């Protein structure tokens, strides 16, 4: 009797839990680890990470972003590229530009642009420019596709210059 009651309580607790927390999302967030020492949650945190895992609507990041990422100086390097103007244009021709900060981060809040995909993106800093030839089909996190030094399945980190 006691055993059955415990099992029932367990089942109810589990049902309540599942209804408010998405376990896959939870795991994706946890996989990104904790905050780096000395950097508070804000515009300079989590450089290189896919911002929208947490700022994409399911939390725990606030506010929601439609785009977010980090730009580096050269392909595969870890030197952040500051003052790069990132210009994004959505399928309806709406354009928005953001300038990267000192860690290379930029983001667009969803309330500023709730895009219709596909979107195009280009980078500019003074006379330098880089353009993504293809378009972004449906994710606003650059780091979903641009990861580390690149691999067979991933592009390298977003960079400003092809070579030093
Ligand atoms: C692992 C989860 C996670 C990731 C990934 C993440 N953030 Fe955050 N971010 C948070 C949390 C949590 C907060 C604090 C929210 C709050 O104030 O309640 C936050 C806050 C912020 C804020 C402050 C918002 C304000 O209140 O003004 C900014 C800006 C921000 N993040 C930018 C970024 C950028 C840019 C990226 C990607 C390079 C990123 N975040 C990646 C979790 C994340
Ligand atoms: C869905 C995957 C995907 C996402 C998301 C994505 N990219 Fe890309 N990106 C690519 C691919 C694939 C290429 C190489 C082919 C090309 O240039 O179109 C590329 C190339 C680029 C290039 C040109 C680099 C070169 O070597 O020619 C830039 C700049 C760039 N991306 C910036 C960005 C920025 C900024 C974001 C985030 C707003 C972003 N990308 C999001 C897949 C993606």
Largest sheet: spatial strand order: 4-3-6-7
Q: Structural class, please?
A: alpha+beta
Number of H- or I-type helical stretches: 3
Helix/strand order: HHHEEEEEEEE
Radius of gyration from CA coordinates = 19 Å
The largest pleated sheet is described as: 4 strands, antiparallel
- CATH architecture label of the largest domain: Sandwich
What fold name goes in the CATH topology slot of the largest domain? Immunoglobulin-like
Average residue-wise pLDDT: 90
Q: CATH top level of the largest domain?
A: Mainly Beta
Question: Helix share of residues?
Answer: 10-25%
Which small-molecule ligands are present, each listed once? heme C
Distance between the termini: 72 Å
Sum up the overall morphology in one term. globular
What is the percentage of strand-forming residues? 15-25%
Low-confidence stretches: 10-19
Number of domains in the coordinates? 2
The number of E-state strands comes to 8
Task: Explain this structure.
The chain is α+β, with helices and mostly antiparallel strands and 164 residues long. The chain contains 3 helices and 8 strands; from the N terminus they run H-H-H-E-E-E-E-E-E-E-E. The protein has helices at 2-20, 23-31, 52-55, and strands at residues 65-70, 72-74, 85-89, 95-99, 105-109, 120-125, 128-131, 159-161. Strand 6 (120-125) and strand 7 (128-131) form a beta hairpin.
């Amino acid at each position: 009797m006691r055993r059955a009651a415990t099992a029932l309580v367990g089942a109810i607790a589990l049902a309540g839990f599942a209804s408010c927390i998405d376990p896959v999302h939870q795991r994706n967030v946890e996989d990104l680890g904790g905050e780096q020492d000395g950097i508070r949650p804000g515009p300079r945190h989590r450089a290189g990470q896919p911002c929208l895992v947490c700022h994409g609507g399911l939390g725990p990041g606030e506010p929601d972003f439609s785009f977010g990422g980090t730009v580096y100086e050269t392909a595969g390097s870890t030197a952040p590229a500051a003052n790069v103007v990132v210009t994004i244009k959505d399928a309806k021709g709406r354009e928005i530009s953001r300038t990267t900060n000192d860690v290379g981060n930029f983001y667009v809040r969803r309330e500023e642009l709730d895009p219709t995909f596909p979107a195009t993106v280009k980078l500019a800093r003074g006379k330098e420019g880089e353009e993504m030839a293809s378009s972004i089909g449906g994710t606003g996190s650059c780091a979903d596709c641009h990861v580390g030094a690149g691999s067979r399945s991933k592009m390298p980190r977003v960079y400003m210059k092809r070579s030093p």
